[in-house]
């Protein structure tokens, strides 16, 4: 596992914790809303990486979502069509993946070169980029880092 990618993903979890504090939610509030134990939320916020679904669900509960910040510091956000019956985390993944796909194309990078740099198969990367495969947070972090971008939490408006 790439230590830089892991550190970036852990930072995202810490930023989510700060957003939770700012929104006035306790770990117990989040745990109850997500159907997990308070100790699980505590683990996520202290370096144990949550799944993509839990990561997004916690953000949704406290009113934030992820946006891409490009290498120039500009926030890049996208839209994804809401599909009936589709989990919210999948819609968010398609929205975020669309922005990252645009960044890849803008940088003139191929899927194959980025997949190799991220450390996943071309098949997996193609499915990630279409929002059809939930990423592990460290893979998302490597993907974002390979594009010289970052992601951050932003209030839902």
From TrEMBL:
Residues 16-47 form the HTH cro/C1-type domain. Pfam families: HTH_3. Gene3D superfamilies: lambda repressor-like DNA-binding domains. GO terms for molecular function: DNA binding. InterPro entries: Cro/C1-type_HTH, Lambda_DNA-bd_dom_sf. This is Helix-turn-helix transcriptional regulator. It comes from Actinospica acidithermotolerans.
